[in-house]
Amino acid sequence: NISFGGFIICVLCISIVFISSSQG
After folding, report:
1. How many CA atoms are closer than 13 Å to the CA of 12, on its beta-carbon side?
2. What are the TM regions of this chain, as residue ranges (predicted)?
């Protein structure tokens, strides 16, 4: 069972990695 806070952190981490790889 993943808490809402943990879900937000996961989304933020994935977004940061995606943006970082996108910008090179």
Report:
1. 6
2. 6-22
